[in-house]
C-alpha cells in the first residue's frame, strides 16, 4: 500500500499538467495505518525497519512534492492514517470524521505518527491523543490545526475540488517554488528565513510567470501562465 | 516547595508500579508561583540564581520523567504556577480556572514561565499575557493549546482520573519509550525526526509488550503487560 | 513607505518616554503590501532585492525593538500587510477585518509573508492561505493565533489603547528585557532556553525596578518605576 501510494505520488510529478493532488479513500475509514500482521516477530527486525522507513519516505515525499497535496477525509483516520492527514499540505474533512493515534492500546506507541502530529497540533493535544489513544472529532481537529477545513459530508467533494481548482488556476512553477521555500524556511531562525525568502522573491519576480502575473494585474487582464 | 515537588516527582519514578502522576492543589489557587520574599535584595544573587535554577530543573524533570504527568487545575494558576501547567504533558482544568503571567506588574517579567508558555500557545497570545499580565479564561487556554481539556468543576476529578486510568491501563515501558521519543524528535528537522522515530518503532515492536499487544490484537483478546 | 515605517519605528526608540508603539492605518485597507509597479522588469533585480531586504529589515526591527509593537487592524491586510500584522508582538482587530496572502494570484508567491505567517498560525492554515490566496476572517485569524483579540469596530481604538496603557504602566527596562529574552529563548532547545532565562530572571531581580516592584508588592503600595 505504501509503495503504491509512493508510486502514485511520483507518477507524472514532473509533468507540467499536474498541478495538485487529492488523497482520498473509499468506505467509512480513511486509513487505519499499518497492517499489524506485518509487525509480528514472524517478520525480521530488518523487515520492520523497512516498513517504517518506507512510511517515513512517503510522508516526506508529500512535503517535497512539487505540487500541493490535499487530504480529503470522510471517516476515521488512525495511526499512520492520522499521520498521512497531518503530513498533507491541506486537509479537508467531513464533520463525521475523527482522528486518533491508538497505537499505545496495542503496545505500539505511535512514535512516527507523532512526528507529523507534533508539528501540526499543540503538544498537549498531541500528547493526550498519543497517551490515551482516544479519538478527537473533526471540529476539534480543525480547532487545533490538524485540518484546514470541516464541511458537511455531502459538501466534502465539492469543497475539496473547489480548493484544488483554485490552486490549479495558478502558475505551477510559482506554486512549486513557494511550497519548497515554505518548508525550507520554516525551521530556520528568523534572519536566515528572511534571507532565504527574500532571494526567492527576487527569483519569483524574474520568472516568466512572475512578470506575466504582475503585468496582467497592472493591465487589468487575466494572466496566461506558461504552465 | 520546589524541592518538595522535585522529590515527590522523583519518588518511585523507576518503580514499575508508577504509571502516571497527577499534580493538583487544595484551595482556590492552583499555584501563584514564586514567593517574592525570597527575591528581595536581602538574599544574595547566588540565592536568586538557585531559586530559578531549581524551578527550571523541576519543569524539565516533568518532561524527562518516565511516566506522563497531568496537571489537574481548579482555580488560579499564575507566573511559575502557569509555567507548571504549561510544562505538564496533559492539563485538565475546571471552567472556573484562569491563567496569567503577571510578573511584569511587580517589575519581574515572567521570563522563565515564558519558556513553557511560548512552547504551548501562539506567540501573540503569550506576548499579550506577558506584556499586560492579564489573565485568560480556561476556555481561552483550551482554545490556544495551554490545556488539553476543560470540564465543569464538579467533573474535574472524575475526568482527570478517567484519563489517568486510561494511561495506567497501557504498558509502562511502551508509554515511557513513546514519551521520551516524542520530546526528543520534536525540535529536530523532519528527516532526523523520522530517522529517530523509525528506529524507536522497530525497538518498540521488539519489546515484550510490543509483541504481546500486537498478538493480543490479532487474537482478539486483552493484552497482559509486563508492567 | 517601508523606509518611512522603519524611520518611524526607530524614532526615539531609545527614549525612556517611549513605552509602546501602535501601528494603524486610515481607510478600509490596513495594508495591501508591496506596490507591484516596483516589481516589473522595468526595475533591476538589484532594486527588487533591495525592496524585499528593506521589508524584511522592518519586520525584524519590530521584534528587536525595545518596546512592544501593537497592530491595530480595521479592514483588509494582505500580502506584506498580513506579514506586518503577523510580525507585531500583539495584534488587535475589528471583527470586519480580514487577512490574506494572495500573491499566488498574480504569479508572485507570498514567500516573505510566509515567514511571519508560518510562525504564527498552524502550517495547514498558512498553506491553504498561501496556495489559494483566499482571505480568512478576523474570527478565524484569532482562532488560529494571528490575532491577540477581536472586537467590534467601534471598540477597536478603545481596546487597543487600553492594552497599550496597561503596558505603559509597567517599567520600560523590565518590559524591554522581557521582550528581548522572549524572542531569544523561543528557538532554543529547552535546556538552553531555561539557562538563558534563569540568568535573565536574576538580572531582572537585580534591576532597580525589579527591587522596587517586589518591595512595593510586599509593602502593599504602588511601585514607582525609574522609566
TrEMBL record, chains A, B, C:
InterPro entries found in the cross-reference section: ClpP/crotonase-like_dom_sf, Enoyl-CoA_hydra/iso, Enoyl-CoA_hydra_C, Mitochondrial_ECH-domain
Primary subcellular site in the record, as a coarse category: mitochondrion
A GO biological process held by the record: fatty acid metabolic process
Pfam family, one: ECH_1
UniProt keyword annotation of Transit peptide present: yes
One of the record's GO molecular function terms: hydro-lyase activity
Localization in the cell: Mitochondrion
An annotated GO cellular component: mitochondrion
Function: May play a role in fatty acid biosynthesis and insulin sensitivity.
UniProt record similarity statement: Belongs to the enoyl-CoA hydratase/isomerase family.
Listed name of the protein: Enoyl-CoA hydratase domain-containing protein 3, mitochondrial
Species of provenance: Lynx pardinus (Iberian lynx)
Amino acid at each position: 500500500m505504501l509503495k503504491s501510494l509512493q508510486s502514485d505520488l511520483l507518477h507524472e510529478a514532473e509533468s507540467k499538467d499536474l498541478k495538485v493532488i487529492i488523497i482520498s479513500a473509499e468506505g467509512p475509514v480513511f486509513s487505519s495505518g499499518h497492517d499489524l500482521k506485518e509487525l509480528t516477530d514472524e517478520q525480521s527486525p530488518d523487515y520492520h525497519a523497512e516498513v517504517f522507513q518506507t512510511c517515513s519516505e512517503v510522508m516526506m515525499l508529500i512535503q517535497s512534492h512539487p505540487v500541493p497535496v490535499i487530504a480529503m477525509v470522510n471517516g476515521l483516520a488512525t495511526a499512520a492514517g492520522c499521520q498521512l492527514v497531518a503530513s498533507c499540505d491541506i486537509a479537508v474533512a467531513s464533520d463525521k470524521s475523527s482522528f486518533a493515534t491508538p497505537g499505545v492500546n496495542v503496545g505500539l506507541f505511535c512514535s512516527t505518527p507523532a512526528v507529523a502530529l507534533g508539528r501540526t497540533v499543540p503538544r498537549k493535544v498531541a500528547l493526550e491523543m498519543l497517551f490515551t489513544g482516544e479519538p478527537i472529532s473533526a471540529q476539534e481537529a480543525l480547532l487545533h490545526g490538524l485540518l484546514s477545513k470541516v464541511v458537511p459530508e455531502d459538501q466534502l467533494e465539492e469543497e475539496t475540488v473547489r480548493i484544488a481548482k483554485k490552486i490549479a488556476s495558478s502558475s505551477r512553477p510559482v506554486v512549486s517554488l513557494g511550497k519548497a521555500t515554505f518548508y525550507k524556511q520554516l525551521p530556520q531562525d528568523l534572519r536566515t528565513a528572511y534571507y532565504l525568502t527574500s532571494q526567492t522573491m527576487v527569483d519569483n519576480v524574474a520568472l516568466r510567470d512572475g512578470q506575466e502575473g504582475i503585468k496582467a494585474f497592472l493591465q487589468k487582464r487575466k494572466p496566461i501562465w506558461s504552465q
